[in-house]
Design brief:
mainly alpha; 3% strand; 2 domains; disordered N terminus; 185 residues; Serine Threonine Protein Phosphatase 5, Tetratricopeptide repeat; globular
């Protein structure tokens, strides 16, 4: 018992220790450290880091908006725009108020299977809403079994999983029935 009690600090000792530790940390956190302006020692670890790759200029906002707009219904325009500017595949348009929408999301919420599948074939980042619209029951079940709170998730424009399943038409009927069995409205 003496061994255990030797390890237990009194309240006074703990306060003194914490005060000393806090003072030491405050001394280390100078404005230069907080602002990242401390010079780094020249070491092999720092030399091995690659400089950030220049990704080029941002894509013009009007082009992003147009790509997302045509991704709702115009496969030919989507294909042409991606041929001219492949980087459009992963862009999102900010409609305001936190409502971001990528081309794949536009195709998904309107139920345009052809555009969604084309974008996916090009490497677009599909999500739970796309899988729902496409009628991918096992994927949707897997997501919702692993992360049940996603039943309340909302896609672009605040649209629900049920909305996406309905837009998926006949191919998404099994997903729709599954979502309804969970009580999702």
């Amino acid at each position: 018992m003496k061994e255990v009690s030797a390890w237990i600090l009194s309240a006074t000792d703990r306060r003194a220790f914490l005060g000393t530790a806090a003072a030491g940390m405050a001394a280390l956190l100078t404005p230069q450290v907080l602002l990242g302006q401390m010079s780094q020692p020249d070491s092999s670890a720092n030399k091995s880091k690659k400089p950030a790759k220049d990704k080029g200029p941002q894509i013009e906002g009007a082009l992003v908006k147009e790509f997302v707009r045509v991704s709702h219904s115009d496969l030919n325009a989507v294909q042409e725009m991606l041929t001219e500017t492949p980087q459009l595949l992963h862009v999102s348009w900010d409609w305001g108020g936190g409502d971001f929408e990528a081309g794949i999301e536009a195709a998904s919420h309107v139920g345009d299977r052809d555009i969604a599948l084309y974008l996916m074939s090009q490497g677009a980042r599909a999500n739970l809403f796309t899988a729902t619209m496409l009628g991918q029951t096992e994927i949707v079940k897997g997501f919702l079994t692993s992360y049940p709170y996603l039943i309340h998730s909302r896609g672009a424009h605040g649209l629900s999983l049920i909305h996406h399943a309905k837009k998926g038409g006949e191919q998404a009927q099994e997903v729709l029935a599954y979502l309804e069995s969970l009580g999702i409205q």
